[in-house]
Amino acid sequence: MARIKPQALLQQSKKKKGPSRISIATFVIYGLIIVVMAFFLFASYRHWTRRSKFQAEDILSGVEHDSSFPEPKKVDVPKYAVINTSKGSITVELYKEGSPEVVDEFIESCQKGRFKGMLFNRVIKNFVIQGGDVNRPVTTEDWTSRGKHYNQLDTSLKHEAFMLGTSKVKPDGGGFDLFITTAPIPDLTEKINVFGRVIKGEDIVQEIEEVDTDEHYRPKAPIGITEVTLKQKL
Asked: What are the PPIase cyclophilin-type domain coordinates in residue numbering (predicted)?
């Protein structure tokens, strides 16, 4: 058996204990892996950052949209009313700005059909025609005496005729009566809330004014309102 020299054994021992060498190709592969992972992490971070930003913008945009949402359009108040009677139609212009509460009550009464079938229960020449409940506890004698008084006045007084109004004093049971003046009346606002003016159908008002009445100024033949139509435009 051949004998191994000590120098050869020493060299073999150094070869076994020495570190293994890593090739350049391995370095390149590891480097590429690190670069790809870093790029992936950066791309993921950028994606989630942008997504969070867009979500925040959407929320803010929604809040701004809600706060800037236009107010609901107000319902237009009718400006005119056509009072259809057994004699013909009378068109009136409503004074919403001057008598808002009275106009609102009148419109509500029209919408509920309260004027349908209402009779003109007082017709006083050169004074007023009145529609309402003939059995209401109104001051009939007062209106009658005032009618006689105004029949003796000069009707050329500078106060408009053909004004639409309702009594200021309401009975306990409520209700809404109508007055249309047929002559200039100086102290009209003493008893009546004026809330409109006849703009068409003055001849119908005058025709009603000329009907035969009894001693209490009640028409001998019934004259009534068949319907009241509200209009925004004519």
From this structure: 88-230
